[in-house]
Design goal:
The complex is a heterotrimer of chains A (about 220), B (about 950) and C (about 450). Chain A contains 12 helices and 1 strand, in the order H-H-H-H-H-H-E-H-H-H-H-H-H. With about 220 residues, chain A is mostly helical. In chain A, helix 5 (about 85-90) packs across helix 6 (about 100-110). The termini of chain A are far apart. In chain B, the strands form 11 sheets. Chain B has a 7-stranded mixed β-sheet with strand order 6-5-17-16-15-7-8, with helices on both faces. A 6-stranded mixed β-sheet of chain B has the order 21-23-22-25-20-24. The two termini of chain B are about 40 Å apart. Chain C has about 450 residues and is an all-alpha fold. Chain C has 16 helices and no strands. The mean pLDDT of chain C is about 90. Classes of the chains: A mainly alpha (about 220), B alpha/beta (about 950), C mainly alpha (about 450). Chains in contact: A-B, A-C, B-C. Chains A and C meet through helix 1 and helix 9 of A and helix 7 of C.
């Protein structure tokens, strides 16, 4: 009877099987990696906006407070985007002819809103409330990052459930003095942890924050 | 939730239209896809006081049957998303009913008429105005001869002012009023007895004894909320053992009032007159005609009279809409004898203004047929459908050269008129009106009209050459009324929603005419007893999907009306539920599905109005029968000499509860005295560890002694929680989505019938089987005692539903929400996730309201107070049957309720430790079951 | 003396007879007819699933209260059937019952395919099937894990494990035969196919040693699974606090029921195969007799389960439970209860007679009736409990829709297709094990001669 398989057939078969297993494993790993990559989380990816608004310039250089534009952040679930006329309070004086501001002027004239592309986005079944976080001294920078370093706005943190829970399980380190929530630069605070080591703990006690209750599903999902 | 009722300055109103663009965009984002939408659209010019993400509350009112129902409207960035009762209002005190709750959908209804039509073709307002002008000039010459105005009942001072102006300009013009199911006979009786028109008001809160002669005063109608509230105050008093709340009723068909009665007598319509006469005689009123009464009737009267005599001054005898003027007159005489006037029965000058004699729709039709009518203007009425077919309105209309119909929908009448123009909904217009107690309510728009529609006032104004807006017209009427401090009063009223102390003064009339005799006709064959439909009234709400899907309190049928017949009659004629029956009265006939109703008189067939319309819009098309086809007189609802025959066909009745016999179970329990303890099973041991609950930990108590099954809570729940409507077919398959259902049970038969309602929301069991069953942690327990359902985690194994002993869980069998039109998306409550296909959902105790209250209190740095969280159902309930709160706080309202000896758990044997518990029904003089 | 040993008494002959079926299938026409039918049913599977996934579970007859329907009762039925294979091969292997050798191969195959069908049901019945993997524990960005108290979570593990072990056991068992198929194959394609499948088996002594170890270890793992899987599945019901489900008798009751239905299907297949492929000499009347005895035994045990369920209810006398029991006996769905009782136990009694046991046609019919009877039982247990639970107000009947039935037919299609392919292309009986049996047969004879 003629040989059907060469002597090396076994080896090739084994390698074949091995390969299949490997490919499978790699796929899993890749998927896991992708979910955490910025391709999925969009961290650090700028989006081109109708108007190339620079937080770096307005917050960093001019030092305008967040609440000047995001007016409802302290009282409402939504921080709120500035109405066109808020932009115009300054830009009716400054850069009145600037081509890059054309859409703003056009919006004011036509009464059609400027269609910003959202950067900090949550799914519809997630109910995030700005006012309570602000009133507990969670600084803007904790979620939105150093917007004063962003010429064009980009997402600073992966808005994943795990990331939310990290803080809800242990809020203390994130808490800051209530009156400085909009402050961007906390480097000195972080550089001298010994000065503030029990600040968070004290705040937790003062606000009766119980992490166990903070992670109830109904805290965010309704 | 904070309700700062700020009067919106006009700039706000104006900007709302611009807001619509933004809010609609946001609304579609309030969908349920995991990716929030890409675009964010800020205001161009932010309206004052509107904070994105924060609700605003405005006090306004919605009209029904001429009366204004005061409401607080909740709006998000200019979108009304929920209506609630106005707790400050002297009469309603926040009480609501289904029609008021569903008015929100009436506003967003995609089937609403959206542009003028000439002979059925879309036309422009300009063309319409031209036509009106032409017509007007012609009428000016003839002093308005041939001009007729047809409206429903009117209480609006502004509208009345406009009408009287018009009639002054055109002396020969006439105004007719047609309000289906108005209180005509009661008014006539007042005229007969007191010699002047008076409107009676039942002060049920003062009545220890009420004897109702087929008066369903707890049933549907403009008075339901107020009367339900007053009645419940008396019941609550009885529970505290302060006086009695003894309710006698004689009725041909089981009603809400009958279910709550302590002594119910099933009586054929023709017997009611005899009973009235007999009671009168027993109390020494009226002529002594001696009629043979049956044993049960005599017994019932005996008990009633005894109770009345024991409570003179705090007793009340009342008769129902379908009873003759004479019967009403006799009840007035009886009440006078009981010195009820001023106590349990108050009188005021009519709240509803009537044009005087010869102004009924009947007279109008005669004149039309006689060709006296050249111009007919119909405002928000649908006579082509909602008048007895026999009167021949449709034929008469052909003789009118210019017929104009204005309404929310292009209904039957619109189809027959030359012109149809779309009206603004109350929630988008300025108007005013009186609530049932006569208090004046101002109606302010919550939103700018988003269809090409016009206000009723502006429309009428155009007939007197005016071009003023509804806003100006309403202000004008009150500027005259209030004089110099108008502006302050105006602002103040907009904040409050009503004008304080504006109700007409109570009068105690003297009887002018004592000899009233009741003509009793003997019945031959079956008697037809026609009633308003509990969910769509006379058909005017037929396009409201929420109401269509609301189960009728007794039959639990949805999406259609049925013929109610008694079990005995059914047995005799071999009729089973759903069999198609042909009901015939002197030549006129209807065909509809049978439903067997306990407590129904054996010789009476009960029908409801509102269905069988031929072109009422997409929803009601082809549903039910049209009871108007049997009527001959627009105000008499009882017809004798009917014959009944099965057609042999069988229809499926979309009922949400197929079994209503309690079958010896103790789901609804009762005690024989307010302080008696309800029978309980001993609590069984549990393998689960006892858990400690921090404050707050939420719970609910539902008092079965107060629930009248009015369904206000059911509709409120749908509105608050974005509960989808599924339609007739799916309800037939047992797939309704109501988070809160009201079970109706009965025990016994005929006069011994015991009927009760049991609202069943999620029980939020402390030891919940659903949580144990869910493989993915979508059903979990929160630290504040809620049984949570996490939609976005649910994969739809339906284990929770299978394990739930109360079957309160609802499943999205199909995609119910994805294809909603833009309007309905705009209506959604942004605080509640819109569920998608394949996901389980259920009552959440309005967790979004709890979260709002929690966040508010935390920011304010104080604990949540009792009453901070009011669930939608609790707010809606006119009888305060539902109480919600922190069960760990012994002083909270709910804890005090649960401390009652009447408190019990549904299905103790399942040992689920429910957080929703019930207070047993009190049935005096009966052993605790 | 036993007569489980094959005739003619020649090792080569045995191998030829079995392996030739795989290499050069005898009656192709009949096979193609069956396969055609199977493919039609398979088509129905794909259509039903497409409809199901595009419109949602609503296309079925389910409602509230009956949130579970045909899908789950069929799932339990299929999984039950999938028990006999492992019982026969693994347990009897460890018990050194050599007569099993002519049955185990196709019994295992049957198990495998039944479990596949069973495994498909819970996934397609989900509201959001595309998220089925959330039931598996895996590290995720939500940091949410499955809920380990839930019987469904355990179900997931149980079925997955059982499937894996069944595949292993079946494949390990088939390798030597595949090898001999490879050696006898004439066509190139067949040679390569069998060659690859044989994983380079050369029948060397150390091959056999390793093989024996592997085979016995897997068997040892498989046996406890037989008991665990269906006990676990029974908790799907028993864990719900619903009258008619909350019963401690369920685990044993389900396992026995499972074995019962499984043996029924095995005997059906055995009878069909030996008739269609002329294997009377390998699957002898003695085999049928033994199968029938197993069937009778497990059947009686199941009957005891029925009885004890009724007894428990009567003994406890709990109002709601009584209601459910009476409704099962006389309610709308009484047909399913009595259908189960009659179809399961009445014809079964014939198996007390040896003549019936060895009479293929009769045995086939009885097994068929048992298979149907067990389907009735699963349906009855599910529906009668749900459609009429605690609150009178929520009582509502359940009627499977067209798509329920079409999917059921489709699942049968999946099973048939797979099984027919197996029959066509793989050695359906373990030839080398048969030869073993034969060898020992001779051994015995010699000893007798000498002794």
């Amino acid at each position: 009877m003629p040989q059907i398989f060469t002597a090396s057939a076994d080896t090739r078969l084994r390698t074949g099987v091995l390969l299949v297993v490997l490919v499978f494993a790699v796929c899993i790993l890749f998927l896991g990696g992708f979910m955490d990559s910025t391709y999925a989380t969009r961290v650090g990816w700028v989006r081109d906006q109708p108007v190339p608004f620079s937080h770096e310039h307005h917050v960093g250089a001019l030092g305008i407070d967040c609440r000047y534009c995001h007016t409802s952040v302290e009282v409402s679930a939504q921080a709120g985007l500035p109405p066109t006329h808020v932009c115009m309070t300054c830009h009716s004086e400054l850069w009145t002819g600037a081509p890059m501001l054309a859409p703003v002027r056009e919006s004011l004239a036509s009464g059609k809103p400027i269609a910003w592309r959202r950067v900090a986005r949550l799914p519809d079944y997630v109910y995030f409330n700005h006012s309570i976080h602000i009133s507990r001294g969670v600084p803007c920078v904790a979620c939105h990052g150093r917007v004063d370093h962003m010429p064009l706005l980009a997402r600073a943190e992966p808005f994943q459930m795990r990331w939310c829970l990290d803080c809800h399980r242990n809020p203390a380190p994130r808490l800051r003095p209530r009156d400085q929530v909009t402050r961007m630069d906390w480097s000195d605070w972080d550089r001298h942890p010994e000065r503030h080591k029990d600040f968070g703990r004290r705040m937790m006690a003062r606000y009766h924050i119980e992490p166990a209750k903070l992670i109830d599903c109904s805290t965010c999902h309704r | 939730m904070d309700r700062d009722l700020r009067a919106p300055p006009n700039v706000d109103r104006r900007s709302l239209l611009r807001a619509m663009a933004a809010s609609l965009a946001l609304a579609s984002a309030a969908g349920k896809q995991a990716r929030a939408d890409e675009r964010a659209l800020p205001y161009v010019n932010a309206p004052e006081f509107v904070v994105p993400g924060k609700p605003k509350w405005y006090a306004t009112a919605v009209g029904f049957a001429g009366y204004a129902h005061p409401v607080l409207g909740k709006t998000y960035v200019g979108r009304p998303v929920k209506l609630e009762g106005n707790a400050d209002h002297p009469a309603t005190g926040g009480a609501t009913d289904v029609f008021m709750q569903a008015a929100l959908l009436g506003l967003y209804d995609p089937a609403r008429s959206q542009a003028p039509r000439l002979l059925g073709r879309t036309a422009t307002w300009a063309a319409f105005d031209a036509a009106v002008t032409k017509r007007r000039l012609m009428l000016d010459e003839r002093q308005g001869d041939g001009f007729r105005l047809l409206t429903g009942a009117v209480t609006s001072p502004t509208l009345l002012r406009q009408i009287s102006d018009l009639l002054r300009r055109w002396p020969k013009a006439r105004w007719h009023v047609h309000e289906t199911l108005g209180d005509t006979h009661r008014m006539q009786a007042a005229q007969q007895v007191f010699g002047r028109p008076l409107e009676p008001h039942l002060h049920l809160d003062k009545a220890n004894v009420v004897v109702s002669l087929d008066d369903d005063f707890l049933g549907p109608g403009p008075h339901q909320a107020v009367q339900g509230r007053r009645w419940s105050q008396r019941r609550l008093a009885r529970q505290q053992e302060q006086g009695d709340s003894n309710l006698f009723i004689a009725e041909p068909s089981l009603t809400a009032t009958g279910s709550m009665a302590d002594h119910r007598l099933t009586a054929a319509p023709v017997r009611i007159g005899l009973l009235a006469a007999a009671i009168a005689r027993a109390l020494g009123v009226g002529p002594s005609n001696n009629d043979a009464l049956s044993a049960s009737e005599t017994a019932w009267i005996g008990r009633a009279v005894e109770a009345i005599n024991a409570n003179r001054g705090s007793a009340l005898v009342t008769a129902g809409r379908s009873q003759s003027a004479e019967i009403h007159a006799v009840t007035f005489l009886i009440n006078e004898r009981l010195s009820a006037f001023g106590n349990t029965l108050g009188f005021t000058d009519p709240v509803v203004s009537a044009p005087g004699s010869g102004s009924s729709v009947g007279d109008l039709i005669e004149d039309m047929t006689a060709g006296h009518v050249s111009t007919l203007v119909m405002l928000a009425v649908n006579p082509a459908y909602a008048t007895p077919t026999k009167l021949g309105f449709r034929q008469a209309l052909e003789k009118v050269e210019f017929a104009l119909h204005a309404g929310l929908h292009a209904d039957e009448t619109a189809g027959l008129c030359h012109w149809h123009v779309p009206l603004q909904h109350d929630l988008e217009s300025w108007t005013d009106g009186r609530s049932v107690d006569g208090t004046v309510c101002l109606t302010q728009p919550l939103i700018r009209p988003f269809y090409n529609v016009r206000s009723l006032h502006a429309l009428l104004d155009s007939w007197s050459a005016g071009t003023r807006s509804d806003h100006d017209l309403v202000r004008a009427s009150w500027r005259d009324a209030w004089g110099k401090d108008f502006e302050d009063k105006w602002r103040d009223t907009l904040v409050r929603g009503f004008v304080t102390d504006s109700a007409p003064a109570a009068v105690t009339p003297s009887v002018a005419n004592h000899d009233i005799s009741i003509k009793v006709s003997a019945a031959t064959g079956l008697t037809v007893d026609i009633r308003p439909d509990p969910s769509i009234w006379d058909g005017r709400f037929a396009n409201n999907a929420w109401l269509q899907e609301t189960p009728k309190p007794i039959s639990k049928a949805t999406w259609g009306n049925v013929l109610l017949i008694s079990p005995r009659l059914a047995a005799r004629r071999k009729i089973s539920p759903g069999d198609e029956l042909r009901l015939e009265v002197n030549g006129r006939r209807i065909v509809g599905a049978a439903w067997i109703a306990p407590g129904q008189d054996d010789e009476t067939v009960t029908l409801t109005l509102g269905y069988g319309a031929d072109r009422a819009g997409p929803l009601p098309h082809g549903l039910g029968y049209n009871a108007f086809a049997l009527c001959s007189d627009p105000d008499s609802w009882t017809i004798t000499g009917a014959t009944l025959a099965p057609t042999g066909n069988h229809d499926v009745v979309a009922s949400t509860q197929l079994n209503q016999e309690m079958d010896g179970f103790d789901f609804v329990r009762s005690v024989d005295a307010p302080d008696a303890a309800v029978k309980k099973h001993p609590e069984t041991a549990s393998f689960y560890p006892e858990r400690h609950w921090d404050s707050p930990s939420w719970g609910m108590s539902i008092d079965l002694d107060l629930c009248t099954g009015c369904n206000a809570c059911v509709v409120a729940c749908m509105a608050e929680n974005n509960v989808p409507v599924v339609g007739k077919e799916l309800i037939e398959q047992g797939r309704e989505m109501h988070w809160l259902r009201i079970d109706h049970y009965f025990e016994g038969e005929a006069d011994e019938l015991e009927s009760s309602f049991q609202p069943v929301p999620c029980m939020h069991c402390e030891q919940a089987p659903c949580e144990m069953g869910c493989p993915v942690n979508a059903a979990v327990h929160s630290h504040d005692g809620l049984n949570l359902q996490v939609y976005n985690r649910c994969v739809g194994t339906r284990t929770c539903a299978s394990y739930c002993p109360y079957k309160v869980r609802r499943f999205n069998w199909f995609e119910y929400t994805g294809n909603d039109p833009e309007q309905l998306r705009a209506m959604r409550n942004p605080d509640v996730t819109v569920r998608s296909r394949g996901v389980m959902e259920k009552c959440t105790y309005c967790v979004q309201r709890i979260s709002a209250a929690r966040i508010a209190s935390q920011i304010a740095g104080r604990p949540i107070r009792d009453g901070d969280v009011v669930t939608a159902c609790q707010q809606a309930c006119p009888t305060q049957a539902i109480v919600f709160g922190d069960v760990t706080d012994p002083k909270s309202a709910v804890s005090r309720r649960k401390a009652s000896r009447r408190d019990y758990n549904l299905l103790e044997e399942a040992n689920t430790r429910p957080r929703t518990t019930y207070l047993a029904r009190i049935r005096p003089g009966e052993r605790p079951s | 003396m036993t007569d489980v040993a094959p005739t003619p008494h020649g090792y080569a002959a045995v191998t030829d007879q079995i392996v030739d079926i795989a290499i050069d299938y005898p009656d192709r026409r009949a096979w193609w007819i069956c396969f055609g039918v199977a493919l039609l049913l398979l088509l129905s599977f794909f259509v039903s699933v497409t409809v199901l996934f595009s419109y949602g579970v609503g296309v079925w007859g389910n409602n509230i209260p009956v949130a579970w329907g045909l899908a789950i009762s069929n799932y339990i039925w299929f999984l039950g059937i999938g028990h006999a294979g492992t019982l026969i091969s693994a347990m009897l292997l460890l018990l050194e019952q050599h007569w099993r050798n002519s049955l185990n191969r196709f019994a295992e195959a049957m198990t495998l395919f039944a479990v596949i069908c069973a495994g498909l049901y819970p996934i397609v019945h989900l509201g959001r099937p595309w998220l089925f993997y959330w039931i598996a524990p895996y590290p995720n960005t939500m940091t949410v894990w499955p809920q380990f108290r839930s019987p469904l979570t355990w179900d997931f593990f149980a079925v997955l494990t059982y499937l894996t072990v069944s595949i292993l056991f079946w494949y390990i068992g088939i390798v030597p035969d595949v090898a001999s198929a490879r050696d006898r194959a004439k066509k190139r394609r067949a040679q390569v196919f069998f060659g690859l499948a044989a994983l380079g088996w050369r029948g060397a002594a150390h091959h056999w040693a390793r093989w024996r170890q592997a085979y016995r270890v897997t068997a040892a793992i498989a046996v406890p699974l037989v008991v665990s899987v269906h006990s676990e599945v029974s908790l799907l019901f028993a864990a719900g606090p619903i009258p008619g489900w909350t019963s401690t008798v369920f685990p044993p009751y389900f396992v026995l029921g499972a074995a019962f239905s499984g043996f029924a299907v095995v005997s059906m297949i055995a009878i069909v195969l030996r008739h269609a492929l002329g294997l009377q000499n390998l699957v002898t009347p003695r085999h049928l007799d033994l199968l029938a005895k197993l069937l009778l035994a497990t059947g009686l045990m199941t009957a005891y389960g029925y009885w004890s369920e009724v007894f428990d209810t009567l003994y406890a006398g709990e109002h709601q439970e009584m209601g459910t029991l009476l409704d099962r006996l006389g309610g709308v769905y009484a047909w399913s209860y009595w259908g189960a009782v009659v179809a399961n136990f009445i014809p079964l009694q014939l198996l007390w007679f040896r003549r019936v046991r060895t009479q293929p046609l009769l045995l086939f019919l009885i097994s068929l009736s048992v298979t149907i009877g067990m389907w009735f039982e699963r349906y009855m247990l599910l529906v009668t409990t749900l459609y009429r639970d605690y609150l009178v107000s929520s009582w509502r009947e359940y009627h499977p829709s067209f798509w329920d039935w079409s999917l059921f037919a489709g699942m049968l299609g999946v099973f048939l297709t797979l099984f027919l392919l197996f029959v066509r292309f793989l050695p359906i009986i373990s030839s080398f094990e048969v030869k073993e049996a034969l060898f020992e047969e001779k051994g015995n004879k010699k000893e007798q001669a000498h002794g």
